[in-house]
Write a structure and sequence with these properties.
By secondary structure, the chain is α+β, with helices and mostly antiparallel strands. It has 2 domains: 149 residues, Rossmann fold (3-Layer(aba) Sandwich), CATH 3.40.50.10730; 199 residues, Urocanase fold. It is built from 14 helices and 10 strands. Strands 5, 6, 7, 8, 9 and 10 form a 6-stranded antiparallel sheet that branches. It has a two-stranded parallel ribbon with strand order 1-2. Helix 3 packs parallel to helix 5, helix 8 crosses helix 10 and helix 11 runs antiparallel to helix 12.
Length: 364
């Protein structure tokens, strides 16, 4: 897997010797040179080892994170087993394997918590490893946050999230045209320009040529209508499909990730993705889906997805304007309803109606 990442330019180097890997990283740090090194090992062993080295002054760890797929303990390798025994041991004794996997997860999570005790910035991606460590009996598992409450929620309050488009022509030149157009559309968005430039250099296409960036309420519909004009004017050679990720502001209920630690305790309320799907369908989406799992495990989340097609027609323009206004708008409304001041400010500034704020309060 690491070799594949390296071949796709997401990763600079691969190592199977920890000392060599650390030497490379520390040398790059001393030279203030960006470098990523993938090390082949078991995180339940490596995290505690790095913590020991940090405490001994051999290195300084500033940021610790994890994106382990941990919702299924049978998919996490306990320290007792080698990779070649993994499948056989999991099948032979799934209950025993689960117990050992959770114990290993607890060792990894404990190291992460203790890195935080040492002053490091610590967070995870929300893939249930903290909860599995809790099942193993580790009582401090939730002392560091998932990345959404730690960093992303203020963006969600603006309806901000992943905006994705695909060139149905299969021609990378069509993505080049859209890259240039979206930079021209948002000339003052330095982060967007930096990302587009970096993506052109480092992110390889897999399957149809595609691009993703983050846009918020009041921006997405502009991009959608722009792409539709590019198709109508023949500046791209085929229609463009516009969608987004399930990691989004108003389309998900996922207590371990997108809706972890909501201000009003509404982490697990599933009405919002259902309302989002209904809104997308009535706004003219080409494709609407309701699904669950979303990287945190089946039954632990529910998401709504939507896709619109920019085919250059006036009807497509009307649909895209509505869809790409209402979809992120649901994110603003969802967070305004939860009491986030930033969402309330965005709603007031950008003209988003929040119906529940207009209704008189009924005394209980």
């Amino acid at each position: 897997r690491l070799r594949r990442r390296q071949a796709k330019r997401y990763l600079d180097d691969v190592e199977t010797d920890l000392e060599t890997a650390l030497q490379k990283v520390l040398a790059a740090k001393a030279e203030r040179r960006a470098l990523s090194v993938g090390y082949v090992g078991n995180a339940a062993e490596i995290f505690p080892d790095l913590l020991r080295r940090h405490r001994a002054g051999e290195l300084t760890v500033d940021v610790v994170t994890d994106q382990t797929s941990a919702h299924d303990p049978l998919a996490y390798l306990p320290v007792e087993y080698t990779v070649d025994r993994w499948d056989a041991e999991a099948k032979a004794d799934p209950d025993g394997f689960t117990k050992k996997a959770r114990a290993s997860m607890a060792a990894q999570v404990q190291a992460m918590v203790e890195f935080q005790d040492e002053g490091a910035e610590v967070f995870d991606y929300g893939n249930s490893i903290r909860d599995e460590a809790r099942h193993a009996g580790y009582g401090r598992a939730f002392e560091f946050p998932g990345f959404v409450p730690a960093y992303i929620r203020p963006l969600f309050c603006e309806g901000m999230g992943p905006f994705r488009w695909v060139a149905l022509s299969g021609d990378p030149k069509d993505i080049e045209v859209t890259d240039a157009a979206i930079k021209e559309l948002f000339p003052d968005n330095e982060h967007l320009h930096q990302w587009i430039d970096a993506a052109q250099e480092y992110v390889e296409f897999e399957g149809l040529p595609a691009r993703i960036c983050w846009l918020g309420y009041g921006e997405r519909h502009q991009a959608g209508m722009l792409f539709n004009r590019l198709v109508a004017e023949g500046k791209v050679s085929a229609p463009i499909v516009i969608g987004r990720d399930h990691l989004d502001s108003g389309s998900v209920a996922s207590p371990y990730r997108e809706t972890e630690a909501m201000a009003d305790g509404s982490d697990a309320i599933a009405d919002w993705p259902l309302l989002n799907a209904l809104t997308a369908a009535s706004s003219g989406a080409t494709w609407v889906s309701i699904h669950h799992g979303g990287g945190v495990g089946i039954g632990r989340s529910i998401h709504a997805g939507q896709v619109g097609v920019a085919d250059g027609t006036e009807l497509a323009a009307q649909k895209l304007e509505r869809l790409l206004t209402n979809d992120p708008g649901m994110g603003v409304i969802r967070h305004a309803d939860a009491g986030y001041e930033r969402a309330l400010d965005v709603a007031a500034e950008r003209g988003v109606r929040v119906p529940m704020r207009e209704m008189p309060r009924v005394p209980r």
